[in-house]
Amino acid sequence: MNAEEGLQRLFEGQRLTPAQRRIAHCLVQQGGRAGSLSSVELAELAGVSQPSVTRFAIALGFEGYPELRRHVRDLGSAGSASLGVGDAALSEAQRAVLGEVANLQGLVALLADPEPLAKAGRLLAGSRPLPVLGLRAGAAHAAGFAFFAAKAHPDVRLLDEGGSLLGDRIEQAVAAGAGALLCFALPRYPAELLDALTLARKAGLTVITVADSVFAPVARLSDVLFPAAVGTRLVFDTACAPMMLGRVLLQAMVDELPGAEARLEAFESSAAARGLFTD
């Protein structure tokens, strides 16, 4: 279990105030650095008062923030030791790769309960059409899902551009019979993505979201949330776990789609007849 997964388990089921949720999200976002933050530093990063940090630690069952910080340090040490990240000979690139391995290991734990995945698969398969939303950093993941999903699902609509037309396209999908929307939300979260999800919920769509954390701002706008951590060791985030989770959701959807096998076979026959591929 890596540090982020351990923190998320610590926070799960807790009735946190909005300020405490900001603190929790900040700790998760800080990753390995979280255990070195003083209460004052954490308060500044989260935009809350220092006493709020102390109350947060007590709400989690600790005597105070120092005990919570020791716990966070222990989580970080355990995660680093299991991956060999403490080896000084490793390059920054190697450490980034190992960080992604840890994120994928967290995904293994997340998928231990098959019911949320099966539920999402049924919702995605049953939506006609199926809108798939992703803006900015999430756009590539939405496009990848939509590309493959269209080979099995009869009507997939990719929503990867913002602007005033985005709301129109969501409303059009609802008018055409859509019942669910799949969203890929990765940091930094576009404000118009939150607006789009708000509109989708008001229109009656069930929102299924792949995000980097259970504390992402899209969580409150999601009916089913799958957290998949992103790597932060390089200049730009790495997102192997969200991509893998998208493929797992794709499989769950295909498993629930009547006639999916026939459509896939029809595509392969058509591709062969048209000479689409060289292999």
What does this structure look like?
- This protein has twelve helices and five strands.
- The chain has helices at residues 3-11, 18-30, 39-46, 50-59, 65-83, 92-110, 114-126, 139-149, 164-175, 191-202, 240-256, 260-274; strands at 130-134, 156-159, 180-185, 206-211, 224-227.
- Strands 2-1-3-4-5 form a five-stranded parallel β-sheet, sandwiched between helices.
- Helix 8 (139-149) links the parallel strand 1 and strand 2 (156-159).
- Helix 1 runs antiparallel to helix 2 (18-30) and helix 6 (92-110) packs parallel to helix 11 (240-256).
- The chain starts with a helix and ends in a 5-residue tail after the last helix.
- 39% of the residues are buried.
- The mean pLDDT is 89.
Mind sketching the topology for me?
Layout: H1 3-11, H2 18-30, H3 39-46, H4 50-59, H5 65-83, H6 92-110, H7 114-126, E1 130-134, H8 139-149, E2 156-159, H9 164-175, E3 180-185, H10 191-202, E4 206-211, E5 224-227, H11 240-256, H12 260-274
Parallel strand pairs: 1-2, 1-3, 3-4, 4-5
Helix pairs in contact: 1-2, 1-5, 2-3, 3-4, 6-11, 7-11, 8-11
Write down the Rg: 21 Å
Main CATH class of the largest domain: Alpha Beta
Order of helices and strands: HHHHHHHEHEHEHEEHH
Percentage of residues in strands:
5-15%
CATH topology of the largest domain: Rossmann fold
| Overall shape | globular
Question: Taking strands numbered 1, 2, ... along the chain, how are they ordered across the largest sheet?
Answer: 2-1-3-4-5
Give the tally of β-strands: 5
Number of helices: 12
On the 0-100 scale, what is the average pLDDT?
A: 89
Task: Give the name of the CATH architecture of the largest domain.
Answer: 3-Layer(aba) Sandwich
Percentage of residues assigned to helices: 55-70%
Largest sheet: 5 strands, parallel
Number of domains: 2
